[in-house]
Fold Gamma-aminobutyric acid receptor subunit beta-like.
Amino acid sequence: MFTHKKVKRNTDYTLTLYLNQYWQDERLAFSSEFYELTLSGEFAAKIWVPDTFFANDKNSFLHDVTEKNKMVRLSSDGRIKYGMRFTTTLACMMDLHYYPLDSQNCTLEIESYGYTVEDVVMFWMKEAVVGVDKAELSQFTILNFETTDREEALASGTYQRLSLSFELKRNVGYFIFQTYLPCILIVMLSWVSFWINHEATSARVALGITTVLTMTTISTGVRSSLPRISYVKAIDIYLVMCFVFVFAALLEYAAVNYTYWGATRAKMKAKKLKESKATTDVAATNEEIIELQDVRVSPIPYLRRRNKATYSSDAHFPPSFRRTRSYYSQGFNRKSLEQRSTLERPKKPYVLNSLKRGASVLRASIPKIKDINKIDKIARIAFPLSFLIFNSIYWCFYVF
């Protein structure tokens, strides 16, 4: 067997090869001065030939330019060499967990379709496979190959099966330039926003959204060229993590913007409170306390004396408190008013109060940042360092 070309994609691979089969039929022995005769492929229809087929074949065709690529060589002792050239697409159960840093093992299964081991015994000749070391593939490197034979028990009988196994290593150069390097550059581009002024909202938001959309486009293009499998591949992990870094850079500006405007509102509120307090102090200083006296004349001397006693008892209070005290002397007190206002005030739901308390605790636990640029300064170091650590772990795990 001469392996000519091998191309592989997804979970199938296409193989163009020369298949030569040898057997001996004593009925075809002849006496002649010619030891071997070369006949056309049409002669194969007049003699017995094995019904060989590929067990893992999906689609095959025999080359027919300019004639059908078949030939028969007959020796004088009845030995026959039956050769043909064809291209076949074979199934390969690939494990893509490490894709595109993976290695695969694909096989070519040759078997007799109708003849069992009682009729035909198939085996590999010495140096049966040649030309594999000269094969050049665009995405793979053939590390090794081996031939095996075994008996395969099926429902219709036991058949002899010959297997040719290829150990393939995927070339990662294509994916470095098409996927990994663009992703790295996009992630690094998202870090530029850390050096842009936080007040340039449109510039930082536009940069963040552009990098996120670019990562989405790259991820979609990579997944479109792969079979739809349920498990996670190595390239999926890298794309997702790059997307997380890009999206985190966008969220970092959201945190900066929120902190900036929160601090601005707090400063404005404190300024207004200070101005209001100053205004109140000035008003209290200039206030003229007017003493209001209610002079009541009663024709009854007892009542007149009681009023005098009341006013005399208020003499030691400041004028500003006299009205208040006389008000409370009528049977009202502060405690009763507070209790009444508490009873009349509608109670807030328990869940709402719990959420407000939790938000207050969370707000109190967040450290107060006085310098808004400190967040960007931390991000300039934290993001590249985290991305470097991730790449170190990723490549060490999948390559070594």
Remarks:
- The longest strand covers residues 140-154.
- The mean pLDDT is 80.
